[in-house]
Design goal:
Elements (H helix, E strand, L loop, with lengths): L2 E6 L5 E7 L2 E9 L5 E7 L2 E8 L22 H6 L23 E2 L4 E3 L4 E3 L5 E4 L8 E2 L1
Antiparallel strand pairs: 1-2, 2-3, 3-4, 4-5, 6-7, 6-10, 7-8, 8-9
Main location: other
Keywords: Cell projection, Cilium, Flagellum, Repeat
Pfam families: MORN (PF02493)
């Protein structure tokens, strides 16, 4: 692969940009299934500089990161649009939140089913096999 093009990884993540000798090389973006984008300059498959933007538009900063930092636990949508009604708990940054299938857990990038030990994305496409549930998953 050489020149300007795109490549879709088995996870559904797509690379769009320049390629050289079959590797990401030059300017290119990784577009993640959850809507996030990693825009970077690549050298032989390794990013030399880049910036990640979450699906909701929040840009990740590795220095002076104040989002969800222990002092301010609001979701980004709450920072931009204000808090929702006090008697309604916001459990995710998605509005409206995804409906969690019965017996499953929301793992941030999809649903974990403990019976099948499989994680699927929010459109019910396979993401990965899981041996054990991670501690950060939320129970429905």
């Amino acid at each position: 692969m050489e020149g300007l093009g795109s490549y879709t990884l088995p996870t559904g993540t797509e690379y769009r940009g320049t390629l050289k000798d079959g590797m990401f090389d030059g300017e290119g973006d990784l577009l993640f299934p959850n809507g996030g984008i990693y825009r970077a300059v690549w050298h032989r498959g390794v990013p030399t500089q880049g910036k990640y933007t979450f699906a909701d538009g929040l840009e990740y900063k590795d220095k002076k990161w104040h989002y969800c930092d222990g002092y301010d636990r609001r979701f980004y949508t709450e920072i931009c649009s204000g808090l929702i009604e006090p008697d309604i708990s916001q459990l995710t940054n998605l509005d409206p939140p995804p409906e969690i299938p019965r017996g499953c857990y929301d793992c941030g990038d999809g649903f974990y089913n403990p019976e099948t030990r499989v994680v699927v994305d929010y459109k019910f496409r396979f993401l990965r096999n899981a041996g054990m549930i991670n501690f950060f998953c939320k129970v429905n």
